Amino acid sequence: MNILDILLQQSPALIVATPLLGAFLTPLIGKLGYNVRNIFIIIILAVTAFLVFLLASDVFSGNIHTYVFGGTTSTVLSNTVIRILFEVDGLSIFMAIITVILSLAAVIYSWAFMREETGQDKYYTLLLLMTTGMFGMVLTGDLFNFFVFLEITSIASCALIAFWTHKAKAVEAAFNYMVISTIGALFVLLSIAFLYGKYDALNIAKLASRITPVSFSFIDKLSLILLLAALTMKAGIAPMHMWLPDAYGRAPASISIILVGATQASLYGVFRICFTLYGNVIQIPEVSLGWIMVILGLITMLIGVFMAMIQIDFKKLIAYGALAELGYMFLGVGTGLTILSNPQLSLASNSFALQAMKGGIFHIINDALDVGLLFLVAGAVYYATKESSLNNLGGIARNMKYTTVFFLIGLLAVSGIPPMNGFASKLLIYESVYQLNPILAIIAILASIMLLAIMVKVFYSAFLGPKIDRFQDIREAPKSMLIAMGILASLIIFFGLFPDLIVNTLVEPAVKAITHPTSYILWLTGGV
Amino acid sequence: MIANIPFLAVMAMIIIGLATVVFKRNLIKMVIGVSIIESGVNLFLITLGYREHSVAPIYTASPGGIMSYPVPQALTLTSIVIGVAVLALMLSLVIYIYRHYKTLDIRKLGGGEE
Questions:
Q1: How many CB pairs under 8 A join A and B?
Q2: Contact, A87 vs A64, CB < 8 A?
Q3: In Å, how far are A348, A349, A358, A426, A503 from A500, measured between CA atoms?
């Protein structure tokens, strides 16, 4: 057995353990100097990235990867096995890839962006903890474990949102998010307790195999609603989106980009619960929430673009843009769920449902890259000018050439203009949603056009326009920030030029994972 | 009936906690509200594992008889630890908010420059 096989076997545990170990070593390594610590953190994340891609290569070849913490046989106490399982399928590894890309970009960006700040050891510790939590959320196969990682993510991210404690608004946004996410997480725990009390299991696959149309009752309905309400709240879907623009807008730019990943990890939770946990009962009318998801997606989209229109704060405007983008994912996946849960329509005869899901899932990674890039650009502008209000900015393209180009790439990508990745996934969504109901596609396209208009306005008011004396001698963003933006920009263009390649290698297994929940459920019980 | 009292208490605690968070205007009271919800959920978990006339699930020197179920207790312990971290972080944020605005009244927050 060579070393790669051993690593592959242990990789689900190592992906979570490596950043966790790194987080607690950071304050020690920090004593050795600024550069040593930053290189150490980049190495930690690079090792994690290597493990993620190693695991991905195995998962994409069709396996579901499980890792057992604890007992492999029943105990004397009862006939249940006491253990925590990590179960990795196409969707989990897809989310893990997003997490690792975003956190690497954020850490490279922080090198220069946070150079002047105090308390950097704590900053990096929390950043790695947040990454750990996100990996845990997407890789775990245990519902209670999911809750624990959810809380780790939200505690670390709240502390990071309030990192600039001298800004009253940042602390306020963090408190706001903390109250909302804690209450959300407690309701997740409550519904886990409901399910545990009824089915005596915490493992997602085992629970899913026990939730059958025969056993379905009020308790299952209640916990489904509580889980979905809490997780959509944490994912920032309207009507519970109010914390999101504040949190995204007030956090340091390098944190905003990881927060995008954190909200998407909650979105992963929504999909996992709808498609896998309730996979056996998906055709019961009370569970088929496809239309609700579609409508919530549309509302989110519209609130996002309308509110973005009136913002004058650069980062808050992008945060509302990010909200609009979340709506597209919900729209795409919701359309798929509507078809999947309708007994009259089979998935085979409705290839557009599959296409909608592909679009929705593909849009998750595209949104992470596009919105992430825009946040980094906003951070770079703030770094250079110390100004975040669009009313005072202007003419900075003269001094910040590369940043301007990156903003242009992000602008085109986020509003779905052809050579960029946003176009590929949005086209998939438009085409397929049109067949469910044309009005949906029209609203989606309208929102996209408005987003383009808003972003062009920002481009004009911040980057173009006459010279402003204050910004006479601002300088281009430092190299590390340019590298981080460059990585995201090149990925955007690459995804945009070869969408087929990405859809076939990354998105297809993820879609397969949620449309065929039985493989996830039966992997554990061995086909019973 | 008597066996259902803990569940009623759970419901009451969650509702009281939610009402506190929604209607109280003092930040500290909001934190207390979150804490009450958390205690309610913990109580629910503990009640799930309890059986009437049961003893603690410790094998060595057990007096015999039925034992209460240990898994919910493990879950509760984890949840309490998380709760402490959340509480500490929330209170430290309240301290910072107080330093900025010199008030804990939620209506007087906001506004002002960045």
A1: 78
A2: yes
A3: 21, 22, 11, 14, 5
Asked whether residue A132 is assigned to any structural domain, the reply reads: no
Domain count, chain A: 1
CB neighbours of residue B25 within 10 Å: 12
Q: Is residue A66 part of a domain?
A: no
Taking the CA of residue A171 as centre, how many other CA atoms within 13 Å lie in the half-sphere pointing to its CB?
22
Question: Which chain A residues have a beta carbon less than 8 Å from that of B97?
Answer: 168, 171-172, 175
Q: How confident is the model at residue A69 (pLDDT cuts 50, 70, 90)?
A: confident
Is B45 a member of any domain? yes
Backbone angles phi, psi at A109, to 5 degrees: -65, -40
Provide the number of structural domains found in chain B. 1
Calpha distance B47→A312 (Å, rounded) = 51
The answer to whether position A461 is within a domain reads yes
- ipTM greater than 0.90, yes or no? yes
**pLDDT tens readout for residues A169-227:** 899 999 999 999 999 999 999 999 999 999 888 888 888 888 888 888 899 999 999 99
- Whether A8 shows a pLDDT value over 60: the answer reads yes
Query: Which CATH number covers residue B103?
Result: 1.10.287.3510
pLDDT for A45-68, tens place per residue? Answer: 999 999 999 999 988 887 788 888
Residue A522 belongs to some domain of the structure: no
Q: What is the pLDDT of residue A435?
A: 84
Give me the phi and psi of A194, to 5 degrees please: -55, -50
Gap from B92 CA to chain A (nearest CA, Å):
10
Place of tokens 């998380």: B82
Q: Convert the pLDDT of each residue in A257-284 to its tens digit.
A: 999 999 999 999 999 998 888 888 887 7
Domain of residue B100, residue span: 2-109
Q: Which of residues 16-75 of B touch A (CB under 8 A)?
A: 18, 21, 27, 30, 34, 37-38, 41, 44-45, 48, 57, 70-72, 75
